[in-house]
Amino acid sequence: MAFELRDSEKIEKHYEDELNKSIEWLKKHLKNPKPLQDKEHFRAISWFHPRAKEPIKRVRKIKAILEEYGYIIDVIKTKDPGIIIYEDGWQVVAKPRKNT
User: Which of 23, 39, 45, 71 could lock 66 by a disulfide, CB 3.0 to 4.6 Å apart?
Assistant: First the structure.
């Protein structure tokens, strides 16, 4: 959604600049977890650790801009993300537990 909005004709310049800054920061500083590329992990979900202050701040900026343009974004928090298949300093990738 963020890329779609950024590339559209309807976004105002200051929002486009802010969106680009946050997207580029995330692309530069967050790893792309390899398990997300594996077909066997198609149900896996990425989560942020609470300690991921700067990535969360950047994602919240993106969320606010998207909401300004009518997108509805839900924030989901959990203490049990599922079966963890990847973890780094900021991210967790987990598969949901069966029967949940």
Answer: 71
CA distance 98 to 83: 10
Mean pLDDT, residues 51-79 taken together: 96
CA–CA separation, 98 and 13 (whole Å): 45
Q: How confident is the model at residue 37 (pLDDT cuts 50, 70, 90)?
A: confident
State the pTM of this model.
Answer: 0.85
Q: Which residue shows structure tokens 């920061």?
A: 25
Q: Rounded to an integer, what is the distance from CA 53 to the centroid of its chain?
A: 13
Amino acid at 93: V
- Domain boundaries, given as residue ranges, for the chain: 2-95
